[in-house]
């Protein structure tokens, strides 16, 4: 049985600029075809617009408010919202307000930085 507590998962910065803690994936469990991570973005920050050629993602917002941009559409999201991100769709998420954004990110197949293609070189900060 594989059980990983969020407090025990080591945080790292992804290619898109978010801080994640990989909870379950092929690197730390018997899971082979997907991954689950907790992601965090500081107030006023955004992930670098990017896409994945192979991976589909689901973001599930736990706390904080954000603007989610997927392809050409932007929509406000908050706690309880689940966002479907198909492979190939350019996407980014930006915090709104002064509260850290915390969300779960489920990837299938599991997250690999080699399948992250950035649209900009650095995370976007507000003006």
Summarize it.
It contains no helices and eleven strands. By secondary structure, it is an all-beta fold.
Describe the overall structure.
By secondary structure, this protein is mostly beta strands. The protein has a single domain, classed as Jelly Rolls (Sandwich). The radius of gyration is 14 Å and the shape is globular. It has a 6-stranded antiparallel sheet with strand order 1-2-3-10-5-8, with no helix packed on it. A 3-stranded antiparallel sheet has the order 7-6-9, with no helix packed on it. The chain contains no helices and 11 strands.
Q: What is the quaternary state of this protein?
A: single chain
- Per CATH, the superfamily is Jelly Rolls
Number of separate helices = 0
CATH class (first level) name: Mainly Beta
How is the CATH topology named? Jelly Rolls
């Amino acid at each position: 049985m594989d059980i990983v507590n969020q407090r025990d998962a080591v945080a790292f910065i992804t290619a898109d600029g978010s801080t994640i803690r990989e909870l379950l994936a092929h690197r730390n469990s018997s899971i082979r075809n997907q991954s689950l991570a907790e992601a965090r973005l500081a107030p006023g920050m955004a992930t670098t617009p990017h896409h994945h050629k192979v991976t589909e993602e689901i973001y599930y917002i736990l706390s904080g408010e954000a603007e989610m941009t997927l392809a050409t559409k932007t929509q406000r999201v908050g706690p309880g919202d689940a966002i479907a991100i198909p492979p190939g769709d350019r996407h980014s998420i930006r915090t709104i307000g002064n509260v850290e954004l915390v969300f779960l990110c489920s990837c299938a197949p599991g997250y690999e930085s080699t399948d992250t293609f950035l649209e900009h070189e650095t995370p976007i900060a507000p003006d």
